[in-house]
Amino acid sequence: MTSSFACRKLTVLAVFHCAAIFAAEYKAGIATQTITPTEPIYLTGYANRTHPSEGVVHDIKAKALAIEDRSGGKVVIVTTDLIGLPRSITDAIAARVQKDHGIDRSRLIINSSHTHTGPLIAHNLELMFDLKPDEQRVVDEYSRKLTADLVAVIGKAIQSMEPADLWFGNGHAHFAINRREPTPKGVRIGLNPSGPIDPDVPVLKVTSADGKVRVLLFGYACHNTTLGGDIYKISGDYAGFAQIAIESAEPGVTAMFMMLCGADANPNPRGKLELAEQHGRALADDVIHVAADRMSKVQGKTHAAFQIVELGFNAYPREMLEQELKSKNIWHARYAAAMLKMMDEGHPIRRYPYPIQAVQFGKDLTVVALGGEVVVDYCLWVKKNYGAKGILVAGYSNDVMSYIPTVKILKEGGYEPVESMYYYGLPGPYNDNVEEQIHATLRQVLKRVGRHPVTQ
User: Fold this and answer.
1) What are phi and psi of 386, to 5 degrees?
2) 325 and 297 within one domain
3) Among 172, 196, 208, 214, whose Cα sits 20 to 30 Å from the Cα of 416?
C-alpha cells in the first residue's frame, strides 16, 4: 500500500512538472566565471596610474544568460565587470560561439560595465600607458585567457538551459549626474545638474518553472567611476557592489549588470570606496523592489538584427600631428607618434565600423545594444521615438572603441568628443554626420526586429 501511494505521488509530481515545463514560455541558462587577474596588472580608465594593481576589493565576473524561445531561437547576453571589450575580442568570441553553438552574431550581446578599477585589456585604451615588456605580457596573456573564459561561460549557460519565464519592469536610481560642466573656458568634466541623465533602471527577471527567481539582469546609465585613479585595487565599482548586494540578499539568484548610455554621467558623490558601496546598495535595493513588485510577463518569439555603420572622422592633418610630437603632454605626443606610424605604413584609420544591435522578445521587450561610450541623448532619442515601455538601451556593447557623441556635444567640445580620442587612438573627432548615421541605422535595425515608432 505504501508503495502504491508513493507511485501515485510520483505520478502526480511528474504530471505537475510536465505541466510546468509546458507552461514555461522560454528556456534559460545562466553561468558565471570569475575573471579576476591572478597577478598584478595595470588598471585602466585613468591615465594617471603609474604602476600595476595592488590587490582586490572583490572579484570581477563574467556572466552569461542564454534564452531560447519555443521555436528554438536562442539569444545570449553576456555581462562583464570590465572597462570595455574591443571588436578583436568580441569578433573572435562571436565566431567561436557561432561555430560551436550555431548562434548568429545578431543574437549575441556582449556588454561591459566600464569599471575603472578593472584590468587593462589588449587593444583597448592602450595609448593611456607606456608599458614595460613584462607589463605588456601580463595584459596580453590576460586578454587571451579572458577570450577563452568568455567562450566557456557562454557554452555553460547554453548547456544549462531549463524551462523559464521572463518578466520586465523598471525602477529608478538617482546618484548619476551629468558631468559635462560648462565653463568660460569650455566644457570640462565636473557637475552639471541641468544636463540630461536617465534615471531608469530596467530589470529583467528570469524565473524557473516552479516560480523561483534565477536571474536579475538590470542596467543603469552612469559611469562606473566612483573610485578614482588613486585606487589600485581591482573591483567592479558600484555595479560590482550592486551585484554582490543582490546575490547576498537573494540566495540562489545571479545578478547581472548592463551598462546603459551613461557616457556623460558620473556617480555623485564619488571618490571613496564607501561611496561605491553606498551607490551599489541603493541600486540593488531598487532592483530587488522592482523584482518583488508586479512585473510584465515577456512572451513570444525572439527576433534579432545586427548592423555595422561606417562612421567618419575629422582627421587631424599630418602637420598638426608632427607638431604634437613635440608636445610636453606625453599622451598627445604618444598619440601623434602612433597616428604618424599608421600613415607611414599606409593604413591610416579613416572610418570605423560601428555596431548597432537589437533583440526583440515578442511584443513585450526590446534590447538595444550600441557600441562605444554612448551619451545619454541616444537612449532618450530611442525612448522618445519608439516608446519607453518594454525597452532597454545599452551602450558599451560588442565593441568599445570611443565615446559616441551627438552633434551638439561635438560642437561643444571637451573630453568626450575630442580629448578622449588621444587615448582611444582614433584619428580625430567624429564628423558631423555621426548622429544622423546612428539614428538612421537604429531605425533600420529596430524595423527589422519589429519595433515600430510610436507615431505609427
Assistant:
1) -120, 5
2) no
3) 172
CA distance 419 to 417: 7
- Of 110, 55, 61, 60, residue with least CA distance to 87: 110
The sign one gets for the Cα dihedral 37, 39, 43, 47 is negative
For residue 104, how many C-alpha atoms fall within 13 Å in the half-sphere facing its CB? 14
**How far is residue 77 from each of residues 90, 277, 285, 301, measured CA to CA in Å?**
13, 25, 23, 16
Q: Taking a C-beta distance cutoff of 8 angstroms, is the pair 82, 124 a contact?
A: no
Bridging pattern class, strands 373-374 and 403-404: parallel
Same domain, 232 and 327: no
Beta-bridge partner residues of 386: none
pTM metric for this prediction: 0.94
In angstroms, the CA 230 to CA 238 distance is 16
For the chain, the average pLDDT equals 95
Q: Please report, for residues 63, 164, 449, the alpha-carbon distance to residue 33 in angstroms, rounded to integers and kept in the order given.
A: 6, 22, 31
Whether 11 is in a domain gets the answer no
41-73 pLDDT tens trace = 999 999 999 999 999 999 999 999 999 999 999
**Do residue 249 and residue 326 come from a single domain?**
no
At 21 the three-state DSSP class reads helix
Contact between residue 394 and residue 275 where contact means Cβ atoms under 8 Å apart: no
Containing domain of residue 30, as a range? 23-303+354-404
Are residues 32 and 74 both part of a single domain? Answer: yes
The cell numbers describing 103, all together, are: 548562434
Q: For residue 128, is pLDDT > 90?
A: yes
